[in-house]
Amino acid sequence: MPRLILVGGGHAQLSVLRALSTEQLNVEAVLVTPSFYQIYSGMLPGWIAGHYTVEQCRIDLRPLAQAANVRLVLGSVIGIDAKRRVVQLADGSKLDYDTMSIDVGSETDTSWLQAADVRLLPIKPLGEFVERWPDIVTSASQRTDYHLAIVGGGAAGVELAFAARYAFTSKDIQAEVALVASENGLLPGHAESVKKRAENLLQHHGIRLHKAQAVGIAEGLQLATGERLQADCIIATTGARPATWLENSGLARDEQGYLLVDAQQRSVSHANVFAAGDVCVREDIRLPRSGVHAVFSGPVLANNLLANSTGNALQRYRPRKKSLYLLATGAQYAIASWGGFSAQGHWVWRWKNWIDQRFMRKNRIERKENV
Q1: In whole angstroms, how far apart are CA 98 and each of 260, 264, 296, 308, 313?
Q2: pLDDT of residue 367
Q3: Whether residues 155 and 255 fall in one domain
Q4: Which of 8, 220, 252, 351 could cross-link 269 (Cys pair, CB 3.0–4.6 Å)?
């Protein structure tokens, strides 16, 4: 029987599991993932702020795999040989495949922050971040001069700065929160009105904003302006890079090392390999790295994996001209960004919460006792 291997349990792969639960294919499907759970990144700032429990923010992959008749292998992929069609796992085992779907996201490039050493906390992998964040809160609560720095002026960095500030304030923790963006400033790619709203709210909540490049030093951060920032913890939310194990895969990659795919989410070099999410880039168009595209490309990925097995026509992923971003700002308040349009308020947060909860309901089923 042909074997389909799903590498990683990312947002797009959830669509594949749902499709396999309703479509009977003559394939052996295997999901390889380092964790039984997928943390939904859209709700992570809400968890940090204390609006959600960790259980509300994670999806159990086991019942989804069972419903799809997919064998779940708990392990980390450390290599792929596309020529031989083999996946290498960290425990030394290997899996052959006929077709493969890759959705492992990206890693956080912290090379210029490494001098900060034990102070450094990358946002990815999300599972490790979730494990370590409670220790940060505990450490901050035991002092009156705790300093937290978030490096990265994109949506992730902005939302985490607001969430951390709210988490500290709600627990009456005396801590300073600083957001370090590059000289390009906040939220690149968003409208000026969105940037202005975010900057005003940062100032309102007492979050120090620094628009300068930063490198790690023993006591915290050294800014390109010459200023030094003391930091007891540095959360890195910028500098994405592809998984290093892709280097020797034999799959076509761009100059940065990301997998090159076509409009059908298929490798441009190997027609039996598909990919979605931050692990890949489109050959024909440039897309921003965003969970929005990982979610919306998921149904196309699922359709094309099934079509590849049945001989049906493949679909194209056609991204929308404008994407909606709802940026949480701490106290159940959010900023809406859609092209040149922006708005803010508690109603925006309720809108975001409704969308996030709908996504979770769509991808969560009850786990049976024998799983």
Answers
A1: 19, 18, 25, 11, 19
A2: 54
A3: no
A4: 252
The per-residue pLDDT for range 350-369, each reduced to its tens digit, is 999 999 999 999 988 755 54
Count of all residues that appear for the chain in the document: 371
Give yes or no: residues 136 and 226 share one domain: yes
Beta carbons of 59 and 33 less than 8 angstroms apart:
no
Q: What predicted TM-score, i.e. pTM, was given to this entire model? A: 0.91
Tens of pLDDT, residues 295-336: 889 999 999 999 988 888 999 999 888 889 999 999 999 999
Strands (E), 90-246: 94-96, 99-102, 107-108, 120-122, 146-151, 175-181, 208-211, 214-217, 220-223, 228-230, 233-236, 240-241
Q: What percent helix, strand, coil does the chain show, rounded to 5?
A: 35, 30, 35
Which token pair is 283?
A: 């050959």
- Last-in-domain residue among 239, 254, 280: 239
For residue 102, the domain's CATH number is: 3.50.50.60
